[in-house]
Task: inverse folding
């Protein structure tokens, strides 16, 4: 079991951003930092997410995502966003713990407390709140998510880097199933159908998860 003091995914993401000159921002951790297992609007805080907050109070990756700070006077923060989330969305989505948001859109990243391991670590999903509410599994834990995102940033640029409207031509997680499929623990959960309850009946989500399972075998 990985120690919560070791965050190779976070460290790799920072190194990749620095090496590529990709804009990012880090702020010092807040004191006191959030405590693993302590409820956030009624849901237990993932231990690896708590460890990330013990390293950084805020993390922003341009055109990627930003980590919700534990407390903030003017930016969206962990408690405030999750309070609104509980009010606005039905089950099973209201029982996700949102911890980060897309830098361009209102897609969010969340942990799934109901799928926590014996050590308390929770898998991560990407949630589409636009047309039909559904979630895609992207990592077996928070640090593996950060690692996967760092590998996404390392990919060579496509001939047309940005599509019309300013969005990258290659999007996480849709266009990188091979990267996500490297997470063996996640793939075991996916094959067992553990994320089916979050598909929201979306055919697009079902097809993508099938593609990811295929990517694992290539």
Result:
């Amino acid at each position: 079991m990985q120690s919560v003091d070791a965050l190779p995914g976070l460290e790799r993401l920072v190194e990749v951003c620095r090496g590529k000159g990709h804009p990012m921002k880090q702020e010092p951790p807040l004191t006191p930092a959030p405590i693993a297992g302590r409820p956030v609007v009624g849901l237990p805080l993932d231990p690896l997410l708590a460890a990330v907050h013990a390293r950084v109070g805020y993390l922003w990756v341009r055109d990627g995502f930003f980590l919700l700070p534990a407390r903030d006077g003017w930016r969206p923060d962990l408690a405030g966003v999750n309070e609104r989330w509980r009010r606005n969305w039905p089950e099973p989505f209201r029982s996700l713990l949102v911890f980060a948001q897309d830098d361009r859109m209102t897609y969010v990243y969340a942990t799934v407390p109901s799928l926590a391991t014996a050590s308390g670590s929770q898998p991560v999903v990407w949630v589409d709140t636009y047309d039909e509410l559904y979630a895609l599994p992207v990592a077996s834990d928070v640090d593996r998510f950060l690692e996967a995102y760092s590998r996404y940033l390392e990919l060579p640029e496509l001939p047309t880097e940005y599509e019309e409207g300013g969005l990258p031509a290659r999007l996480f997680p849709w266009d990188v199933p091979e990267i996500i499929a490297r997470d063996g623990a996640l793939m075991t959960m996916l094959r067992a159908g553990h994320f089916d309850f979050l598909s929201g009946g979306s055919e697009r989500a079902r097809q993508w998860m099938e593609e990811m399972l295929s990517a694992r075998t290539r």
About this structure: The mean pLDDT is 90.
